[in-house]
Design a protein that fits this description.
Layout (H helix, E strand, L loop, with lengths): L1 H39 L24
Length: 64
């Protein structure tokens, strides 16, 4: 049982790390596109359309 738990923990850590790297890469790409738009003079005024209207953007999911 302990070996299975260790394998599962290792797998979850790897998946979590990959998600973190993917999120960081997506954020870098978003910032890059935003800077390109600013350089072209296409700056958007007002709130972003993808913003969470309920305001719970920073809340993490609860897993039971």
């Amino acid at each position: 049982m302990d070996e299975l738990d260790r394998e599962e923990f290792y797998r979850l850590k790897k998946v979590s790390g990959k998600k973190g790297r993917d999120a960081a890469a997506a954020e870098i790409e978003r910032v890059k596109k935003e800077k390109e738009q600013e350089a072209k003079g296409e700056v958007k005024k007002g709130p972003e359309t993808s913003a969470d209207i309920l305001g719970d953007e920073e809340n993490e999911d609860v897993i039971f």
